[in-house]
Design brief:
Blueprint: E1 5-10, H1 18-21, H2 25-31, E2 34-41, H3 48-57, H4 61-64, H5 93-99, E3 104-107, E4 119-121, H6 133-140, H7 143-153, H8 164-179, E5 184-189, H9 191-199, H10 204-226, E6 230-234, E7 240-241, E8 244-246, H11 248-254, E9 261-265, E10 270-274, H12 280-297, E11 300-305, H13 309-312, E12 320-324, E13 328-330, E14 339-341, E15 346-347, E16 357-362, E17 369-370, E18 373-375, H14 379-387
Parallel strand pairs: 1-5, 1-6, 2-17, 2-18, 3-4, 3-5, 8-13
Antiparallel strand pairs: 2-16, 6-16, 7-15, 8-14, 9-10, 10-12, 11-12
Length: 390
């Protein structure tokens, strides 16, 4: 018999938060009575969309296709995100669940737009001036289901601002558990990630966000236990405090190379693509220019080449992948002197070993088990075993 499972992703929850969440009763109870790993390595770049795709596919970004949060759209000031199921190039956990006859639900889970999910409210933004947020969401997911949720709980919303959005998602989760009882449910919370970006990893606002997550988790956990659900909790990446942002676009413009490359920020890392296939001499010129920038600013730690894509898992179409030095991040914007004060206090996107996160599954019939160190790509297999599906 298949078991019911709810998977909760607390965006940006990581090993650095363990000291605080072990002092929160619901988090502590679940962690102390679960199959768990407190040493989960995410994928590179350590962004929300690539890692959520890896959780549900068991594959690296260069395999599943979600290589960044946003797409390469050079002529748009606000590129679209990888919102749609069609962007993922392989099977997902919710596809396999459907094939095995399970009912599915997703609430603001990344890259689920137009997915074949029974109850689906995808994470998607109104990214054009003429678009309306509710209409965009309705047409990318389950229309009648979402209409019911918006009519019942939209009073909690203030656009997509936090903590309002996660309060809305909490009520949607509880309603769905009680009234729809899906076999497999995915829920994505972003309050913590938002506070880390704006205020930094050690801020009061981050501590308050974790307290709000504790209250959300308590309510969902109590409801899930009454309905005999297993509950999985995970993070997708950590966050690193930064002080400065780097504009490679400005540097390449001043060096006459901007017409050769397309620079794409991943916040805590960055891609460099060729605009068109170039000769070895052009590629070498770009590389040497980066080496000069690295040497004289000390703001770049590594310059990875296409040869590193297989091992690290980033987009194999990129000519280079840049890893910043501690305290730095990247921007697509133009900055006159190449480096400026960052508008964010913390970012992610850097190498996976800098962003260890956690994973656990609570089942009242299973004893506490430490999985030790695992990779985020292993989570799909663990969840399939829990659901008894393949």
């Amino acid at each position: 018999m298949n078991k019911k499972l709810i998977i909760i992703s607390f965006d940006a929850l990581c090993k650095d938060d363990l000291n605080q969440i072990y002092n929160l009763p619901t988090f502590k109870h679940i962690l102390n009575n679960s199959v768990y790993s407190l040493d989960v390595e995410p994928v590179y770049p350590t962004l929300t969309y690539p890692n959520h795709a890896s959780i549900i596919t068991g594959k690296m970004p260069n395999e599943h296709g979600i290589v960044n949060n946003t797409k390469i759209q050079p002529n748009r000031s606000s590129p679209d995100w990888f919102w749609y199921r069609s962007d993922i190039k392989c099977d997902t956990l919710y596809d396999i669940a459907k094939q095995n006859g399970l009912t599915t639900c997703a609430l603001l889970w990344p890259t689920t737009g137009e997915a074949k999910i029974d109850y689906n409210m995808p994470e998607i933004f109104a990214n054009r001036p003429w678009q309306n947020q509710i209409i965009v969401s309705l047409f990318a997911g389950s229309k009648l289901y979402q209409l019911k949720l918006f009519r019942s709980f939209s009073y909690l919303l203030d656009g997509i601002k936090q903590p309002n959005l996660d309060d809305f998602v909490t009520e949607c989760t509880l309603y769905t558990l009680k009234n729809k009882k899906p076999d497999l449910m995915f829920v994505h919370f972003t309050d913590l990630d938002t506070q880390k970006h704006i205020y930094g990893t050690k801020s009061t606002q981050v501590k308050e966000a974790l307290l709000r997550h504790e209250e959300r988790l308590k309510r969902i956990f109590e409801c899930a236990q009454d309905l005999e659900y297993k509950i999985a909790i995970l993070g997708d990446h950590g966050s690193l405090d930064v002080h400065s942002t780097i504009s490679i676009n400005s540097y390449f413009k001043d060096n006459g190379l901007l017409n050769q490359i397309y620079f794409k920020s991943c916040d805590g890392s960055a891609y460099i693509y060729l605009r068109r296939e170039g000769s070895s001499s052009i590629k070498n010129k770009i590389f040497y220019a980066l080496e000069e920038f690295k040497k004289y600013t000390d703001s770049i730690e590594y310059i990875f080449t296409q040869d590193n894509s297989t091992k690290l898992g980033f987009d194999k179409r990129a000519l280079f992948m840049l890893e910043p030095s501690f305290g730095y991040c990247f921007t697509d914007k133009y900055i006159e002197n190449y480096i400026a004060i960052s508008k964010y206090k913390a970012v992610h996107g850097q190498l996976p070993h800098k962003h260890k996160t956690l994973f656990c599954v609570f089942d009242k019939n299973t004893s506490k088990t430490d999985l030790k160190s695992i990779k985020i790509t292993q989570i799909k297999g663990i969840l399939e075993n829990l659901l008894n599906i393949k």
